[in-house]
Amino acid sequence: MVSWKGASMLLLLMTAASSAFAQGPDGFALESANGDFRLQIGLLLHADGRFETDSSGDVADTFLLRRLRPYFKGRFARRFDFYFNPDFANSTLVVQDMYVEMVFAPAFRLRAGKDKTPFGLERLHSASNLLFMERAMPTAIVPNRDIGIETLGDLRGGVFSYIAGVMNGVADGGSSDLDTTDGIDVSARFVVRPFTRKATHPLHGFSLAMSGSAGNHTGTALPSFQTRTVRQPFFSYATDAASDGTRVRYSPQVSYYYKRFGGFGEYVHSEAPVRRGIVRDDIAHQAWQVAGSWVLTGEAATAAGAGIRPRANFDFGNGHWGALQVAARYHALKIDNEAFTLGVAAAGASRRAEAWTVGLNWYLTPNFRYTFNFERTVFDDNAPGSRPPENAFAFRTGISF
Is 355 part of a structural domain of the chain? Predict the structure, then answer.
């Protein structure tokens, strides 16, 4: 008679014999022989240095761990996927993503749990391969992570893609793990890639997208906005102001990748009623960005923030330097004038922030990267009495697999 302990060891040996262990640029994975079960483990680490070069004293120069995210993703019973992505940066645990997904077909998948809201173009780019150290100002007024149910899929070999969800709803730029109100947001994003099935076409990497969301939220907190590199606050609402009605967002988006070149742009409009005492009116914020990049060493730029894979990994002794990419962007955020004329903005808030960013990305391997950014932010067109411009330099050591 075989004991329970013996049976368990036998099952473990049988499982190991019928599964495969893989390692590579995308992490470590254990997969069953028939592919029905798979577990992949990886890590994202961003160690930053950030410095305000104008010595205004408003922001402390600092080194920090921006992200420390081990992740687990996989598949079971062939048609069920899962993803778990915690973040331990700054010794604080935050569950960024945690969802399960049923795959009926490439054209229809059903996802439940915590995930990025299907809205912002750059927000949906993976943090492991952002073009710049921080996402641009449009991301400040799009929703981040939320909990709900989504349906998504690709049609005609990726010519059309969609993702739509019903979620709790979060403030501009916000994330949430708990909802204490009755408000619900409906969000959707549709993408068309007309030439994606023609691999040699010059417009193979061209795509257009449109996003929208709407939800009724009353009495919930309102957002504040910060500069992107050193996180200096430049706009907030009065402390006794609150949301009071249906919030609507929309965003047209475009991207294009061809050989060494990559570029994208997005516009975001976010509008919601705000109440302060007896004063109530719709307040609309607008933000936009245009970004472009060029790979100096000849590798192909990749869509959707997928990163650059060097032709040869860094090897100083043999004269291999990896891949080098330069990037630049313009981005801005404009606050509705009504926020000031109605008195719902906090004292000292800025009406507009616009910034130029230049960057250098050095990919030593597909998994190891140095990033250098310089960003200048100007407030209220640098008019007399406005907030002084912010000049910031930052660099990052990044590991992702």
Answer: yes
Range of the domain at 372: 19-400
Rounded Cα distance between 261 and 128, Å, is: 19
- Look at residue 28 in the predicted model and tell me its pLDDT: 85
Q: Give the Cα separation of 169 and 157 in Å (integer).
A: 31
Computed over every residue of the chain, the mean pLDDT equals 92
Q: For the chain, how many structural domains are there in total?
A: 1
DSSP label at residue 121: T
Q: Which residues pair with 72 in a beta bridge?
A: 41, 84
Read off the pLDDT of residues 172-205 as tens digits, 9 standing for 90 and up.
999 989 887 888 999 999 999 999 999 899 999 9
Return the bridge partners of 122, or none: none
The residue-averaged pLDDT of 5-15 equals 48
Cβ–Cβ < 8 Å for 229, 392: yes
pLDDT digits (tens, 9 = 90+) for 334-380: 999 999 999 999 999 999 999 999 999 999 999 999 999 999 999 99
Q: Domain of 143: which CATH number?
A: 2.40.160.10
In a domain, 68, yes or no: yes
Tokens standing for residue 96: 């960024």
Residue 303, token pair as written in the block: 């869509």
Task: Give CA–CA dist 54/286, Å, rounded.
Answer: 28
Whether residue 35 is contained in a domain is answered as yes
To which residue do tokens 């710049």 refer? 132
Closest CA to 380 of 353, 349, 348, 344: 353
CA–CA distance from 3 to each of 9, 14, 15 (Å)? 10, 16, 18
195 secondary structure, DSSP code: T
Q: What is the mean pLDDT of residues 242-250?
A: 95
pTM of the shown model:
0.91
Sequence-separated contacts (24+) of 368-371 with Cβ below 8 Å: 368/314, 368/398, 368/399, 369/307, 369/396, 369/397, 369/398, 369/400, 370/395, 370/396, 370/397, 370/398, 371/132, 371/133, 371/395, 371/396, 371/398
7 occurs within a structural domain: no
| pLDDT at 13 (0 to 100) | 43
Do residues 336 and 285 make contact, with C-beta atoms less than 8 angstroms apart? yes
